[in-house]
Design a protein that fits this description.
0% strand, 5 helices, 48% helix, rod-shaped, mainly alpha
Length: 94
Amino acid sequence: MPQARQWTETADRTICEMRGAGETWSAIGRRLGLARSTVIERGRRLRAAAPKKMAAPPKRDDLLDDANRPPLPAGHPLTWGLLTSEPFPEGDKE
């Protein structure tokens, strides 16, 4: 049976810093001289996550004009805005 790997603080810090900077697991493995799967497993234990990618929201006109777009969920700002953007009509007061 293979021996358990002894992880050092330096290796753990390298994994967290490189992953936080957006590096791939393969690049981290090459830097440490380890297999990608080994680095992934250790990274998960350390909760080393890549930064969240902020996708640019689609333009309103592009989204509404696309005939093949999926349905929007209930309460979506585009559809809810159509319902709430105009003031409620007062009606005739006599």
